[in-house]
From TrEMBL:
Pfam families given in the database record: LEDGF, PWWP
Encoding gene (name): LOC108736946
Name of this chain's protein: Hepatoma-derived growth factor-related protein 2
Superkingdom assignment: Eukaryota
Biased composition (Low complexity): 135-148, 156-165
Amino acid sequence: MKKGKGFNVGDKVFAKVKGYPAWPARVVAVHGKRYQVQFYGTGETGTIKIEDLFYYLKHKDQFSKSLRRKDYNEAIEEIENAIKEDGTDGSSENQNESIDINESLNQSVPNSSLNESSDLKKSIKRKRPSSDDNQSSVKKISKKQISSNDNHLEESNSSLTSEELISQVRGPDDVNSGSDDDSKAAKNVTDKSSQNNDQIELSKENQKSEKNHDKTEKVTGEKTSPKKDKSKYKIVSDEHLKALIAYAEHVRKDPEKYKEKPPEVRSRARNEIVVAKQQSGQYICIKYNRDAPPVFKSEYEHAEYDENEAKTIISLKELVEVGSCNPEDDPKLFETNLTLAEEEIQESIELQILERKTQKLNFLKREQELVELDTKIKACLGLDEAEPKQALVFLDKILALDVDPLMLIKHPHVVDMVKRLRKYVGNTKEWNLSESNLISFQTDARTIREKATKIFFKFIKLLGLVQTDDKAFFDELAQKVEDFKAKTGHLKESEVFALCVQPDSRQAFLDRLDDEEEMKLINSKLDSKQEKLFSEKKNADQSDEQTLSNSKDVASSNLDSTSLINF
């Protein structure tokens, strides 16, 4: 952690977020003692406390890990390339060490970066599509069609022209591609040619590999593009998009609160898609969250941004479904090489629901374990007798347990128990222990006090409280508990126990909507099952009636035959 004045915008750091490894990030804004960062590799943004930020170069050996996660490896490569360009990570200790920095980073950056630089040169030489081609493909969507499909949205969004709608989804970089980019590319080539030959000359081996790459690219380019791995994509449901719109409406009801509130951290996958069904019956995938969002000063701004993105995607999806937008005319907005069946889409959405339920269940299990350990420790250290060694086992489990701050606010008695154990000496005067047993107990009691102190400081850090003394700490904790009770006063006791996030957070709002949608889905499946059972029962009854009728006819026929014989 940097001491003194803190970090500056542009500093390259490791940012620690609960549940994730220390992640490479860049400081993009300062909010008092908190810093808004943008994470490399994912493009997500978050607000981080100063004590959870560490300069990259100084702590690289400490935090850099060999993870198999692709986005983490990309993050490491991105931050090291950024540091090489700037010559420093922003730390005053590294301002005059740019040569050493470049040398150290060259050792850790994969050789693929050289290939990427050669690919960059080739991409400059390739001719890009003209702006006229892009404009013609965009204008195929008429303004009238967009306004007719957006009646359910706000007037500001429904009045968008087709070009504005596409440009919102496509992003500024894609819209401006064309003749302007050709002139920029030519300028870049001219600038590069004026540089020192030693800096841009490739080795013979790299030149050979580049030629081989060109040949391979040419051959593969003539063939049909390969199908993409479906498992790497996350389907964003219509319900989630509508929930983002509903959340923005909720935020606008209390603008003062949310304009003062720092933006909450959002989970943001790299390959999110929205599925639209074409008139042919085939499903097409619209790219969602293609570009990293801008930096936001408040939760209010972020909520409005999410709402606009959701509305734009919904409008585009409707145009695709009515046949007013052809994905082949603008492939940058679509995953054209990804085809999904209806069963796969439903399975993916249900799997996401299952994962969310699993996460909540794991949270509640950890919370239950924390409460049970609290009870067991108290039972081990009673006034009549004590089992200090067993209590130490339970304290170790608390120390290793992944505790969430919300658990401590829901169960403040756990914090109080740990506070008391910091002064634990037992009831030795009443126990009449032998000298050897007394010495053993006193040793265990001292260890209990030490472990309790470790746990106590762990809780302080989790809760983000300033610990001047015990009284000040517990006054702050008591205030948090009172605020929590005020926010949950309208909830049932079972609903409070089931909470896994702060009750007034964005995630809590989305969770409530998700729960409602899940109940609708369950009820729909139950209704469908009941209808099926009713239909089967009705068919069975009709079959029984037909069988009975046939039996009567046979019996009547037999009776007539018998009568004739007797006659």
